[in-house]
Fold each of these.
Amino acid sequence: MLRVGRGPLVVSTSIALLVGATPTAWAAPPQSGQKDFEKPTATGAASQDGIAAESATATIETDGATTAGVPFRHVTEAPVPRRCWYGPGWTGQQYYEFWKDGGVGRSGMTGDAYAAQGLLYDGFQEHALDNEGRWYEPQCALHVPGDERLAYLTSHPAVYVAPGEPAPAVQESVDPRVLAQIAAEHMQLPVGTIRWNPSVQGSGATVVNLDTFVWVEDATTSVQVTASVPGVWSRVEARMASMALSAPNARDVTCPDAGTPYVAGMTGSSCAIVFERSSANQPVKSGQQYPTVTLTATARWEATWTSSLDPTPQALEVQTRTVTAEVPVGEVQTIVTR
Amino acid sequence: MTLRRALPILTVLLLSAGCASEAVEPPGLEATVAAEPTPTPSPTPAGAVLEPSDPDLGIVFEDVPQLEGEQVDVYNTVAYFQKEYWRMMRTNELSPGFDIVASPELRTMMQGVATQNADQQLTLGGVFHTSIGAVVVEGGTATVTVCDDYREVTGTDPAGTYTSQEIGLENLASQLTLGPSVGDAWIVLTGSPAGAC
């Protein structure tokens, strides 16, 4: 009896547990958004709701030439913080419905006072039924000083764009100094490859106590970078002003350029260094077959910038580019025979 | 006539913002169920014309401070900003009213809130209590402290109705910074957290 009695009891308990574990239809409540000043505000493309972007896209064009006289050119884009701009806003109907007499916008004291000052868009009643055409409104980013913002807003009335009509030409108000900075940051200066002569066939070794002609192959010698947004451009022009050579057991040298590529019969060079000791006592570095010294060439670049708003060149911070090479240095042994 | 000039000047001083604090039940006592009192707006100081509460919209301005001069204009701008904020929270849509009192960056933030709630089919209702205080005007800049109190706010989605706590609304204070705008008016440029109310 006891065993019989226990069987059904156990079964019943199991069923009860299963029922208790059955998922219910309960779901977590939705989580509401609210003002959150800890999150950075988003930037990006304008939305259909008329929220304008705080960044524009600058086009960056780079033109330059290498030591071999080969021109190069490339174009890229980069975001640039806007200052003030025309952004797409409300449709004619949305704006009218909000600001019309008796509209929601006039229900409060402050909104009514705003309308009473004549600050509503001119002719907004004419677009009361247009739910496709859109107002383009002057807007300024946070970092724009109050005086500049006010000047822009008061001198750029909202513009209505009917369906099918092109948006007003965008005249970005971007600080040319910002564009110049972006141009400078995108200034690509390929460092090239160090070559030298004498360069013994096989080892590439030069020799002590003789001028070793040095040049940098495929180095950039001049570059021009233009960053632009519609209505504003800034251009950075840079050139290699000098190149410093340094190496252990050699006096430092400053050359006026990236050196002169060696050709047979050449007796002098704009850039030469003299090694005073052999590298024979140096270790064989990784990737090398012979003991070497490290030759360092540091190019010094001077740059200026101008803009569509001011053609006067203004100096930018000097930049340097460094390239190294491992140079075997040997001694010439002379055998005197009688 | 400008917005500022349209507003009568009040010659009194203001100070701090703070939300009405809830009474704390002494430990050991059994709470009794009572109807939650419906706060009423604080009286507007005589002589000042301040943006009023809006029962239709469901927004109540509390602890209305005593203000003078440009503080009145700043208060009204922020009050209008709060009304548009609450309108957005109720409709999940921004309105053209935000354009006259909020910077593009703040409108972007508000659009994010509206989109988040709309994506969840969440709509808010009830009464939004807010207080505006610590109004300081220095030259072309003004700051205020705002408290958002959602205690009487409810949320609804297709699955049901929720309290403000259930949908994660927190009573938070923030400091707003304002700058000059067209028409001799003010615009809210940015904000920063200022803790709990």
Amino acid sequence: MRNFPLFPEQASSFAGQIDVLYWTLVGLSLLFGGMLPFIILFLMVRYHRSNKAADRTNQVHSNLLLEATWSGIPLLIVLGIFFWGAFLYVHVRTPPPRTLEIYVIGKQWMWHTQHPNGKRENNELHVPIGRPVRLIMTSQDVIHSFYIPAFRVKQDVLPGRYTSMWFEATKAGEYHLFCAEYCGTEHSLMGGRVVALSLADYERWLVTPGEVILPDGSSGAAVPTPPGSAIGDPMALVGEQLFTSLGCSGCHRMDGAGVGPSLQGLYGSQEQLADGSTITADENYLRTSIINPGAQITAGYQPVMPSYAGQLSEDQINQLIAYIKSLAGDGASSGTSGMSGGGSSGASATGSEAAGAAAPAFDQALAAQGERIFTNLGCVGCHRSDGAGIGPRLNGLYNTEQRLADGSSVIADVAYLEESIRNAAARVAEGYQPVMPAYGNQLSDDQVRQLIEYIKSLGE
Amino acid sequence: MAATAFPESGYLHDDTPGLWAWIKSWLFTVDHKRIAILYLLSINFFFLLGGLAATFVRIELVTPQGDLMSSDVYNRMFTLHGVIMVFFFLIPAIPSVLGNFLVPLMIGARDLAFPRLNLFSWYLYMFGGIFALSAAVLGGVDTGWTFYTPFSSTYSNSNVILTITGAFIMGFSSIATAVNFIATIHKMRAPGLTWFRLPLFIWAAYATSLVIVLATPVVGIALLLVAIERIWGVGIFDPALGGDPLLFQHLFWFYSHPAVYIMILPAFGVISELIATFSRKRIFGYEFIAFSSMAIAILGFLVWGHHMFVSSQSMYASLVFSFITMLIAIPSAIKVFNWTATLYKGSISYRTPMLYALGFMGLFVIGGLTGIFLGVVAIDIHVTDTYFVVAHFHYVMVGGTIMAYLGGIHFWWPKMTGRMYNEVWGGISALVVFVGFNMTFFPQFVLGYLGMPRRYHVYPQEFQVLHVLSSSGAAVLAVGFIIPLIYLLLSLVNGRVAGDNPWDATGLEWHTSSPPPTHNFERIPVVTTEAYAYPPEAAARDAAEWRPGSPL
């Protein structure tokens, strides 16, 4: 009967519990739904018009006691079933504190998964048995639903937010993976397999190389080469690079002195918001704060962060969030600081437009070093080249006349630029807030020079 | 009973000569009975069309590969099936056909309160139907009947706008009929016909009308918003435009769950009439059946969230919706128990309508009990969006609504047409439908618990045996639906003349001629008894009068 199953395999810690409830319901249904037809059949035959012997006198047309009985008993039974099901549901929806977190992206019509070490897969999910696994899922387009029948788990995957579910596989093997929410033409092909492995096999599998399709449609290596020779969590490391190259680190300084709140220990904590409410800083909160920062402002901060909507792929948001979660503070991963260098590949969405036609004379080598500092310090996060940042646009600034907040004006020469870096609040440009941190003596004279050369290099 | 002459004064009779006059006398009629016939023809046309789409779906699913049609065609096919069956058959079927015909007759009125509005509702229905059909003809629509966003509002490349316009217009047809029923039942009952003397069909029609009036505007709004987002790109549901995809599901199910009760409540009403008549005694627990309809109508508004247990709805919301869903089982159970108790000490005859009613009880019990499975969130997580759900709602909608619709059509056929159909073929059809139905849909419960997702064009090999079983059952079911079509049509030509009251029933509609005259009653009846005023000895007398050779 291998090819004609009548009952699904039980391969997760939930499966047995849900099946017991299911069979109980089947049993109760047989008791009611199975007996009732026989009662009806009996009455049909007993009181058929051809049966003249049946007693038809003293008919009853209403009986309160009877009504109360056949309302009351089913009510008690369904309430019992409700509470049983409710406790089981709460259990199924409450992940244990430490889980293996795997990120899932759905799109028409395939699944992308990424494991913490950066290993990626398409239409497959490898999980270790005996370990609680939590999937953090989002969709790039329409609503999908991640369904593993053998585990008895299913969760819709929505665009624009995270949904999550957890399970613990109990039996090694291969199981169906389906998309259960209708999502268009190839809906029925949007699936594959879930492979449950022993922990040792899973860890071996995590480093098997290969090529996969990335969520943006390009293809790439299934196992990333970790930047530098870092050990640990490449999703978080890639996230950290993004955090630096996008300039987030300029405001979200880990010492708490930045324009934005420190993200150290943020994930999972209770955040006090500016409107007085509190919120748990979960994945959805972090996501909203990146995409629509004005929506939930932390108490004590200004709504000055620019929106990153449309500038980051789902993949990049996942990585940023993996990084922010790594700062949540169990020693090891929180040690990495936002200022760690090396991220020279500033090829991000906000990448600088290099020297324009009318740029003044500048030292090319110094400007290149300056650009690196500009990116690593996070200046680029506020001083956006499109003018939409919290800080003024710097292109074409050098040696032009600038109006200041106090109504006076100034020529943006080397002295002004140096002062603005070391003590930004001294002379604030018109239309901007004095929110930039003072870099005082954090930068050497050489570094300031490099920065200024870079600013000079920014033509219109 | 032994009337042999076909009355010439019935509402079907025309004395105006000429084809155009005849057509006009139907298309511009304001007689509720003629409008019911218009509905009967058009609704059955849509039923056959929806059935045809289902046939193609079931044939495709015989093999695990997609060999009969491409996935795009398959998606259009099941959407066509769903849209037509839900919006153009199940929702209007019993209210618009049987309700239109019977509400004035049962309460002793000459017509509905607003006869022109009644005709207008039929035109709206046809107009909506033409939109939906043109969507199908112009390339179809592939969103499923649920139109989930942002797929329907942004991603689908099919005729979404035409289809939702059709459903939108059809909604107004429902509302017009419902308003008409509410006004009629309140204001036009015959003298002496108090609320607790009303037939239970009227109670059911009343409860249904309240649900229609309160819920239908919400789906209208939801569909309108989808159109606005689709045409002008206003961000309402698509997160890429700043919208919320779950908002649509809330709005949609706020209507579409009560819509299930719009389909099943009138069916309950029909069954109550059939069971009482063919047991030859008063219905058991009249008040409990009447109030359970109202309880279902009210609770039905508070359970829409049980369609969204895995949608990322909050856990607490899910628990509340699960709890209220459990409560709905009780009024449904009360009805079934009261019908069963009605059989006790009755004199039961196995006439075709009664066979359909008994079939209804068997199927509805299964549909209702599996509804409890789905109301338990922990189980629903596994089986939602699988064939388990498909099987469950077909047991309720086909096993419930269609069985009651067919039972009702047979029961009131002599009243509507003045002719009797062939009783032997009637019994055969009821049996074939019952067997075919269970063959089609019972395997789908097993498939669903195995994890077979719904709306799948291709599927894993191991599900094939059950799919083949289901498809062969569908063939039997199709035959079961075709048989009545044939003998009912034939009865118009050579059916025995029925007489005013062929079933010896007590309702007011049986007090007038078959078919009734245009204004229903020669004189408005004065009511002194309740609708099920069978004398205590009626059952015993019926059994005593039975002779071998009389109908079983």
Amino acid sequence: MDVALSKNGARLLRTFFALVILFLYAPIVILLIFSFNDSALPSFPLTGFTLHWYHQFLTNADLRGALETSAIVAALSSAAAVLLGILASIALVRRRFRGKSGVSALLLSPLVIPLVVFGISLLLLFHALGIGRSILTVVIGHIVISLPYTILVLMPRLQQIDLSLEEAAYDLGASRLRTFRSITLPLILPAVVSAYLIAFTTSFDEYAVASFVVGSRVTFPIYLYSALRFPSQLPQVIAVAVVVITISLTVVVLAEIGRRAAERRLEAPST
Amino acid sequence: MAQAVGAQERPGRRLRARLDVTTPSLLGLPVAWLVAFFLVPIAIVAAYSLDALSLDPGKHPLTLQAWHDFVHSSVYLGLFWKSVKMSLIVSAIVVVLAYPLAYYLALSGTKRKYVLLLMLIAPFLTSYLLRVLAWKVLLGDNGPINTLLSTTGVRSADHPLTLIDTRFAVMLVLGYVWLPFVALPIFVSLESLDRRLLEAASDLGASRLQSFRRITLPLSFPGVLAAFLFVFIPTMGEFVTPSLVGGASGYMYGNQIVDLFGTGFPDWQTGSVLAIFLLAVVAVLTAVFARFLQPGEAKAI
């Protein structure tokens, strides 16, 4: 006899689980259907198959520009966030110092700040300093938002690494930097990659803070949001949505497969 | 700490080599970044709320006037409670829905549990804005739901269901957006549950319901509370979802903050008061429940 679930209970929960999955994916599937529907309004009955909306967004220069801007912002901010995250994680995992709990609370606090509050804070800062809004101001904000995520991904990985590997390198005369490059970095590389991916997607999708500090060159979420006010743009926005969601679902699945493979490889010698 | 301090006082050759990257040089950049672009900006907002900084030129004495007005205003506080109530309802419903999902994954002994977990969480890792957009399309007066109802004759086309621009729409979409994520901390706490406790209870004659109520539920409570807070804290300051699907009746406290800094009738002082108040509420919640919000609960996949 199973102590946690009866046969009927398991069946019931399985059905419920399936229903929730249906609820989660149905809106995405419906978007997919309407992205191919030959009508300017997303409504039933369906009127025919078309690739027109995909063609329209592929030739929309504003939209492509916004995607490009977001890619640049995401690439810059996640690279910086990962770099700062590596420094902070090494200090938090490997060093003992006064006020450590305070420092780690500060480093993680952007996780809980309401983004609307952080957005206006940055707006007022740049206003006070007389700095104009641009891509750079968005990057600055996104680094703050992504930093705690990178630390949360990197710290557990650093904690797993056997300290004696690094000590052996010092004993053999390697400098701090050399040890980091040849020992620590290769060992935490999977975590660095996932930290980068998480920071990248966070930035790419970020609307709330960007809406306060973005300049005339808009990011993708800002573009989408403003496009929603024009019904004529809706079909191509739906087509873009389908493409972006499909890509990100694929990346999520691939990243998970890659992470498991890397984990197996790292665990193999020790077991 | 003693180790590091002692090493600096007696710099032996090998020890100095080990300390060539000091703790301050590791922490300097990340901490400086957060001080400059996180703490200082918040301090500036606080200064605006006290009129120490202002859009109006000229000298300003510090004043608590805006705070006084806020505490005595029925509009802003009413809006705050409305948002708190909406967030509470959403968080509670979402946790209640997520618990059986996490229970199934952690305790049913299914072989594909990590595949199923990934399926459940994957939507959360795709664009937030696009998932809200999907519902904006779905819920429209002439959207798929209403036109499906009218073409199948369930409802006449002239009287569509009012779905969009309602408080219900905001709560539905917020629930949709957060549900996958919320299962995670509950799953983690159920996963670490020692099955032998349940076996012992069963051997002693407890029914499944009894062991659930007296063992499983209490032991998974930290995960449940973490899940609740992970939804409650961000939704309290939400403004994107209500502005897309909420209309006037779904207007939340976060929207009010945005509008006070908007181009219509900007009032940065009042807006700053509202922002600092929200931040203080969140800070108190986080501090009180800090031990439930440990990173260990948050990460996992």
Amino acid sequence: MHHVVLERWSRRSSALHRADPRAKIAILVVFLVVLATAHRDVALFAAGSAVLLCGASVWARLPLAAVVMRAAVVLPFSLAFAAVCWMAGDAQRGLQLAAKSYLSALAVLLLVSTTALPRLLRGLESLGAPRFLLMVAQFLYRYLFVTSEEAQHMAKAAQSRGATAAGMAKRQARFRAAAGALAVLFARSYGRAGEIHRAMAARGFQGHFETLTPLRFRSIDALIAVTGSLAPVALRLAIERLS
Amino acid sequence: MQPLIEVCGLHYAYDDGTLALRGVNFRLDPGESVALLGANGSGKTTFVLHLNGLLGGGDDPQPHVAVCGLPLTRANLGLVRRKVGLVFQDSDNQLFMPTVLEDVAFGPLNLGKSPAEAIEVARHALATTGMAEAEERAPYHLSAGEKKRVALAGILAMDPEILVLDEPTTFLDPPGQRSLAELLRNLPQAKIVVTHDTAFARSVCTRAVFFQRGAVVADGRIEEVVERFRWDPYLANSRSER
Amino acid sequence: MHIPDGYLSTGVWATLDAAAVPAVVVMARQAQRRFDDARVPLLGVMGAFVFAAQMINFPAGLGTSAHLLGGALLAVTLGAPAATVVMTAIIAIQALVFQDGGILVLGPNILNMAVIGVWAGYLPFRLAGSGRWRNLAIFAGGAASVLVSAICALAELKLSGLPDKALGVSSVVFLISAPIEGAITLAVVKALEAIRPGFVRQPEPGRRLNASLLAAGMASIFLAAVGVLYSSPAPDGIEQTGLISGLAARVKVLVSTPFSGYEAAFLSGTWSRKAAAGLAGLAIIYLVCLMIGRLARKRSV
């Protein structure tokens, strides 16, 4: 599954991996804003950004080809939109769409490939995001794989259950079987949540999650944040000056 | 000697009225290892959920259950849950934090320890169960046996006096079962093991309590109970032939 | 629809990010006050359920298959505030882990799908869910959750200057997937009731809508409408309606700031102006978030 690969990458070791998540979030936001607001010489800026991102990926000791391909998951959607834009006479917008969405996806991928998700969520919390929401996201992520595995088993079972009828009846039967499978998955998830809650209560849960290790922002993190944020800005300035 | 657990005439009915426990009497002394045996639905799990107040604790005070001399009331729940450590059947539902260390430290943190203290206690518990290397790992990357040991560490970190394990060998392969049995034998706490695995029960416990339709129908040496109810799936016939 | 980065114009995404803040903060606070942290596992696990549910295929005719999107189902089982929190978490995880949907456009995506979509999915059920129109209400909720969030997304894309042809193609897709979502939602609700009737809520028609929720909702909509109108790069079509142009003109006067037109006047070079404006806008949004969060925390203590 996709996020399993991401898990492996995010637990590797490099200066970027060790950096405070807040520094990396700041760099990402700056880069995305600079990219989003670029309207002149977009192609040149896109190329330069691609170089920057690939460089960062190499510095983070990530498998470059795999990362580049992984970000391409956004391309089918964007290229379809780009094609329609071209047919409507606005080819430039179409190309910009495709380039910007791909580079944005690549940048986000870099963030989550160098930061374990729970740590990223903690970074977001210390930057002011609502804790309740982030805890929900944390639990969601924890049980994503487990529940997906359950769903895979049920999907196969549902398929085979509906396979006996023929034609229209077959479609109805498969529809009902799929709905039944979803309902069972729902019930199981609900039951699982109940048992998790009992497990929490059994270990003294008082109604509030405590933090174990707070994040520490070091001077190296500040350095990384500043350099990383200035890079796309400097690139853009340079392109503007030269053109 | 004060018993660790004393249950007198425990009744419990589900919301729809079905009687799950009918007047259960039970006593656990320090250092004992007891297996709870019985058919599916005989009330074993319902019973152990009463021991730390997950069922029957809180608004409806349970005067029929006493843990270390404390009756099970809402005021005592916190104390009782420190003394009775419950290891669930599905470790995935017990390891709900993002990393092993955070999960094992969950209990100590809730007990009021500082983060530094909680980490130390957690590390010690992980070392006891042989999972010290797994601190930073995510739970779903662990094997079933490793998850069980981390779950046990999470309970040990609360410093309980009684360990309760619900079907601990589910999902475990034979080597996993063997190492869990060895680990349990070396732990000083009193143990209650709910299990269908008679071999496992025999290797960990000396005493067995047999549940039938919500009531305790036998309580004695494990060998005798197993033989009386033919609870060993593969040896029962050969025994009767002798 | 999950809008990726790079599709929306700066005015649109920045405004909607700002508008999403009060909505998300109030929803999170609402859910927490009602449930406290004890409900976190349920909401998290049900979020994982929605992800996993998307692996189960429903035959949609003509050899295609569809899957559940989930907003309406969550609303009728967990209630709308909890459903909003779950959907927000889902959208965030989808954007971060699966790069499905952009980061700068989390505001629009959350507003479209987690706020507006969820409430559009819940409203029919709340109004007619306890009578003989129950099945229709559930179906309508499922369809509405997809349709309304799609319309919002398309509107945002149009205001960002995307050509009508692209929007037309998308509309067709949404018109098909809306009734499918309705059908799937209804089928799953029926199957759920067969397992345990308590899973699905009984809507109480007599209850007053929470005043603060309503206020936050109206504030978000107003912010979004004003800001998007004001910042639209496609003013001609809108100005054709005299009423709206009059409103826009008045609003322009009212909110004229150094950042009007999303260009910081004191920086030379258009892109740096826009970028500076964008970043300053985000910084302001961030500070406002912090303030709201602090105020809300004080009130609930």
